[in-house]
Amino acid sequence: MSPREERRAITAGRGRKIRWTLGLLRPYRARIFFMALAVIISTASALAPPYLAGRAIDAGIEADNLTALNVTVALFVIAIAANAVTSWLQTWLVGWIGIRVLQDLREQVFKHVQRMSIGFFNRNRPGTLISRMTNDIEALNQLISEGIVTLFANMLTLVGVVAIMLLLDWRLALVTFAVLPLLLVTSLVFRRYSAGAFRETRERIAEITAHLQETLSGVRVVRAFAQEERHITKMTELNEANRRANMTTVYLNASYFPATELLTAIGTAAILLFGGWQVIEGNIMVGVVISFIGYLQLFFDPIQQLSQLYATYQQGMAALDKIFTLLDTEAEIVDSPEAIDPPPLEGRITFDQVSFSYEDGGPWATRDLSLEVSPGETIALVGSTGAGKSTLAKLITRFHDPQQGRILIDGRPLSDYRQRSLRGQMGIVPQEGFLFSGSIAENIAFGRPEASIEDIAAAADAVGATPFIERLSDGLETEVGERGVQLSSGQRQLVAFARVILAEPRILILDEATSAVDTRTEKVIERALDEVLEGRTAVVIAHRLSTIRRADRIVVLDQGRIIESGSHDELLAAGGRYASLYGSWTSAVS
User: Fold this and answer.
1) Measuring CA to CA, how many Å separate 92 from each of 13, 23, 87, 138?
2) Alpha helix (H) residue ranges in 381-503
């Protein structure tokens, strides 16, 4: 691509983003109309006082005309009052619209993130996504709410001031305009160097947010390995990089805005010198010079504010680039238009020559794997670490789609079903049960929010969670804290089991689900599972011998392939990989 084509593509991309940004304002057209009306009246009333001050001097004071002076002063007061009222209305409407747009934008981004596939979250740090939702959206909101009004108001002011200056005295106006080339050059230099500086600040703050989130989430690991200083050092480095990026913008602002102030002072001096000479010569009246001095500030203020707006624009566009990168990221797994809500599932699972890799061109996590799980059957997946056990569970729930082959539920490909409805009939208990902030009851009812407290209590009792819940001061209403921090790992896992049982899934997946509980609690859960698994299909990933032996069938995986399949006794008699693994397990237990 040639430089010209690249610039054209960048311009087209920016145009699309600006149109999208303006589209956020469309639902609030009525309030925007009244806001624009308030801006017009406010701008017009702000332009009147310098002219009226000049008229008061020429038509009133110099002419010894008290009536003209009184009328002019009355009009002056009316203009100031009108400006105050419309400025209040403008500020209120800008704030109202800005808050609503901020709310809409954050919801839109959050909904988009919620639609993303699991692979997206594996590739993106949570802290970076949080920065998109907070820092970048706030920067974009400043551009939308404050920037557009600033642009509109200052352009009106600038056009009005230029017109009035030309009407008052075209020669004084030309003297004023003589500084414009210098101001234009200064603005172009500021624009050139500020764009990259503001993009850099967005990158640095995102890195700080990501590191902060990661450190707080893993604080126990940090403490356990006494690595506080390491994380503090990393934060210091990121903070220093952020300081340097922001200082670049400070240097630019410190250079640009005093330069415009200097040009304003030069313009004022030129008006005083040339205008005073014209008054002495009798060519113009004193009031005209006074008006020009008043309008001179109104002439340079919009230019300065428009330059400041460019800084806001750069910050907003840098943030918009980040947000658009996020919004332009398409979900890897989407429902086809022909997808249907599945009827009550029987639970037949079929893997048909399935090959899957987490990265394009990367190693295969499963390779040419074929497997049939009958309705109501419980199979145990065993194998060494990295054999592909958890990958199969993720494929069944359609967290990922295979690159080759098909996965079918009840004889239909997973892609024929809507993901949300399909997962509504599946239950997953991972190795570490994740709990949300809230009560134990709320966490158990997560999959069935409409469940009664009696049903919640029954689910807790079914997995043996009732004894520890009753010991808590608030029972089921006990707050678990963020990620369930108020409970032990075993207690969190019991709540996770109760959550799945209450949801009554047709297909149950247990991914090392009992590894975090003690032997006694495991036996309670297994007794409950005997009843829960009745008539349901279950895929169990486990190293516990008791869990494996209870399965109807054991499937042994190695490097993403099935190398053995059969009952516990059959596989032991075969003397293959399972027998070897079983021997290692029994030695470890004894």
Assistant:
1) 32, 21, 9, 18
2) 389-396, 419-423, 440-444, 453-462, 466-471, 489-503
Class of domain 349-589: alpha beta
pLDDT tens for 132-188 read: 777 788 777 777 777 777 888 888 888 888 888 888 888 888 887 777 777 777 777
Compute the average pLDDT of residues 544-561.
81
| Alpha carbons 105 and 324: distance in angstroms, whole number | 12
Q: Can you tell me the distance from the alpha carbon of 116 to that of 329, in angstroms, rounded to the nearest whole number?
A: 8
CA nearest 389: which of 558, 207, 578, 236?
A: 558
Q: What is the pLDDT of residues 434-483, one digit of tens each?
A: 788 888 898 888 888 888 889 888 888 887 788 888 888 888 888 888 77
Between CA 48 and CA 54 the distance in angstroms is 10
CA distance 301 to 43: 13
Compute φ and ψ for 36, nearest 5 degrees: -65, -40
Per-residue pLDDT of 372-392, as tens digits, reads 999 988 898 988 777 888 888
Of 56, 77, 75, nearest in space to 285 by CA:
56
Which residues pair with residue 412 across a beta bridge?
A: 409
Q: Which residue has the higher pLDDT, 580 or 534?
A: 580
**Using CA atoms, how far apart are residues 511 and 429, in angstroms rounded to an integer?**
6
Q: Please compute the mean of the pLDDT values over residues 366-372 and round it to a whole number.
A: 90
Spatial CA neighbour of 294 closest among 79, 1, 547: 79
| Structure-derived torsion over alpha carbons of residues 301, 303, 309, 310, reported in degrees to the nearest 10 | -150
The C-alpha atoms of residue 327 and residue 204 are separated, in whole angstroms, by 21
Residue 85 has pLDDT above 90, yes or no: yes
SS3 379: strand
| 371 beta partners | 351
Report the alpha-carbon distance of residue 359 to residue 357 in Å, rounded: 5
Residues of the chain with CATH 1.20.1560.10: 3-327
CA atoms of 153 and 171, how far apart (whole Å): 26
Phi (first) and psi of residue 218, to 5 degrees: -105, 30
Sign (positive or negative) of CA dihedral 321, 326, 329, 330: negative
Helices and strands (DSSP H and E) totals, the chain: 22, 10
Q: Where are the alpha helices (H) located in 218-227, listed in sequence order?
A: 219-224
Helix (H) / strand (E) containing 407: strand 404-409
Q: And the tokens for 532? A: 């829960």
Q: What does the H/E/C string look like for 328-371?
A: CCCCCCCCCCCCECCCCCCCCEEEEEEEECCCCCCCCCEEEEEE
**Residue 511 φ then ψ, to 5°:** -105, 90
Q: Measured between alpha carbons, how far is residue 290 from residues 85, 271, 367 in Å?
A: 26, 10, 86
Which residues of the chain are in CATH 3.40.50.300 domains?
A: 349-589
- The CATH number, out of the four listed (3.30.1490.20, 2.60.40.1930, 3.30.230.20, 1.20.1560.10), of the domain defined by the range 3-327: 1.20.1560.10
Higher pLDDT, residue 228 or 79 = 79
